[in-house]
Every structure is written in C-alpha cells, then in structure tokens.
Design a protein that fits this description.
There is one protein chain. The protein is of the alpha/beta class. 29% of the residues lie in helices and 23% in strands. It is built from 12 helices and 16 strands. Helix 3 runs parallel beside helix 4.
Length: 367
C-alpha cells in the first residue's frame, strides 16, 4: 500500500493511460508519470498502434531529470525485446531511483520479470498501488492474456419497458442526442464495435465514431453465419477505408466470401453453436487471437442474448428513455431459455446518472 502521494500520482498515470484505450491494441493502454522532488518531470501513455510504450515517452520528456526520480507505471514494465527494447531496461538506464507499479503483467513474456530486473539493478519497487483501478483499466488486455478473449461491453438502449423498437420496427430515435453522443465516446474507447447480421441488415449502420475528432476508427465486426449481408451497404462501401471484419461459419459460400474480401473485408471463420448460429466463445476467441482487447457490442437482441447466455459479457452500458412501447414492441434481448432466476446472469451496479432526457446506468460483471 502506497502513501497518499503515491496514490495521487498513480491515479494521474491511470488517467493518462486511458487516453490510449481503443488505439493501442494488442498492447495494453499503460500510463507512466515521473516525479522528482515532488514535481512531475515526465508523462507518457502508450501511443497509437501500441508503440512507443508509456515509459519511454515519459523518459524522453523528462530527459536528465529522470535520474533519481520515481516512476509510476500502471502495469509492470515489459522485460522482453519485441519491436522495442524492454521498458524495464529503459528505466534502469535512465537512473530512476524508485518504481511504483499498480499491477503485474500476466503475459508469460513478462509475469514478474520486469519487476525482478528492476530490483536486481538496485531500484526500489513497490507494487499494488491502486491495483483495483488498474485492473479495471486493463481489463481487456488482462482477459485476452488470461482467457484468450477480449473484454465485452454490451450496450442496450431501450424504452422504459425494455423495448428497442415498435412492433413495425421503428427505433430512431428512442433515446436523445446526448445519449447517442455518449455512445460514440464509448465506441472510441474500444478496439472494435460489434453487431449481429440482423442489425446490419435492418439499420445499414456505419459503426464509426463521429463528432469526436478521432483519427483511428475502431474495427467494425459483424457476426453473420452465412455472410448474407447487403453488398451495397454502408459497411460494404467503406470496407477499404475502415476495417471491417466478418465472422461467419465454416461452410459459407466461397463466392460470397470472395466478394466481401474483394471489397476489403476480412472474413474470419468460427465454429457453430450447438443450437444454431455461431458460438459466441468461438467468435470472441478469434477476435482475441487477432489482438483485440476491448469489444463494444451494440446488438441486436439475438447476439446480445447469446453473449449473455454464454457468460461472455463483462460490462453493461444501458440507456433508458422515458417512453413506453408496450408488449407488442420489440424486446432488447432475444430468447435466453431461463426458467429460474438463479439461471439469469447478474451484474453489479457501478454508476447511474441522467444524460439529457434519458438515464445512463453502468453495470459490471459480478465477480
């Protein structure tokens, strides 16, 4: 447990690291702050594409002032040589006197090696400062390393009575402009935005971040067993400019797959679920193998229900509007075959607030 000053500087590092969310996969979004004689002399976070890492960015800013400083790092400095030299070695060469680490890195190439290397060099190392907050910030990276899949955030925007459209399918717009703008902000902090084939066909979405000034768009992912998607859609027309990944079954029509590939889409085959459709765990394992750490799922109801049933949802972001559509309206979730409350997935409430004329509520996996 660190001092109040240690915690203050680590929270600073965590805020910096969050700037890289959605932009640095497959690497973690790390933040680093260098403090000497009570003053911040260097700040850094993992840059777009994952390099350079947070520590060398902060060290370059600090220059000679890094000697004798304390480095606050939100994840254990790497100890392996990849596209860049180990960050642990960079801290040693810079002459820092102390390193405060929020969380160890479970990656087998690191996994305590960075901390051990620092200590062998005579540097004082403290671990576990703001570990809970760091675990939350690095949730996607940690899940990809330990479970082989990205973190999944499921977004649901519905009427007060849990409907996403009228019986005729009208849905624009149940929630207001403030809620819709926040959805774009959420997309920007994730590596990918994912929808089911039904949503792609019904809404013809672009799945891009708009109005946020982002320079790196998230990957657009569509789950479609047979790739039976409209080939004149917005997604098809923009596949060469903005990444589009299509998850499909193994026995899809080769000609159809070829046409999508010609348009610029990546077509990724995954296993089928026993009851039909694609297996959610196989979908997420494939996305994890491709390096994705954070996926923002925007439905529809069938995909959302499948992810919940497979216990693959880690966070819920709900927007509830003050409108009632009745039993004939379309529900936000498809069938889940739940006969008893004990079978239902449960989440713990993390935050709630008004946003425009709607209510935002955030939920986390009950672990």
């Amino acid at each position: 447990m660190g001092s109040h000053q240690d915690e203050r500087h680590m929270h600073h590092a965590l805020r910096l690291g969050a700037r890289g969310l959605g932009r640095c996969w497959p690497n973690p979004a790390v933040g680093c702050v260098l403090v000497r004689n009570g003053r911040v002399v260097g700040r850094g976070w993992t840059q777009p594409g994952g390099r350079p890492h947070a520590e060398p960015v902060a060290l370059a800013q600090a220059g000679d002032r890094a000697r004798g400083a304390t480095a606050y790092v939100t994840l254990e400095p790497c100890a392996h040589t990849g596209a860049t030299p180990p960050c642990a070695d960079a801290l040693i060469a810079a002459g820092v006197a102390r390193v405060v680490v929020a969380l160890g890195d479970p990656d087998p190439r690191v996994d305590g090696g960075g901390i051990e290397r620092l200590r062998r060099a005579g540097i004082e190392v403290m671990t576990g400062v703001c570990a809970t907050a760091a675990r939350d910030s690095h949730d996607g990276f940690l899940r990809r390393v330990t479970e082989g899949r990205p973190m999944v955030t499921l977004k649901l925007a519905s009427s007060f009575d849990g409907r996403i459209a009228t019986a005729s399918g009208e849905s624009q717009w149940i929630t207001g402009p403030d809620a819709r703008r926040l959805v774009h902000a959420e997309r920007a902090t994730h590596d990918a935005v994912m929808v089911g084939a039904g949503t792609a066909r019904a809404d013809d979405p672009s799945l891009t971040v708009r109005g946020m000034g982002v320079t790196q768009q998230p990957v657009r992912v569509v789950v479609s067993t047979g790739l039976d998607l409209p080939e004149d859609s917005v997604l098809a027309r923009t596949a060469h400019e903005i990444p589009l990944w299509l998850l499909h079954g193994h026995d899809v029509d080769p000609a159809r797959r070829g046409r999508w590939q010609t348009r610029g889409a990546r077509c990724l085959a995954v296993d089928a679920a026993p009851g039909g459709g694609l297996d959610p765990r196989s979908c997420l394992a494939r996305l994890g193998s491709e390096g994705l750490t954070r996926v923002f799922c925007e439905g529809g109801g069938g995909l959302a229900a499948a992810l919940l049933t497979a216990d693959c949802v880690d966070r819920l972001v709900g927007f509830t509007a003050g409108i009632a559509l009745g039993a004939e309206g379309r529900p936000c979730l498809g069938p889940m075959a739940i006969d008893a409350l004990a079978q239902a997935p449960r989440f713990r409430l993390a935050a709630t607030r008004a946003i425009g004329g709607d209510v935002l509520h955030r939920w986390r996996r009950a672990e």
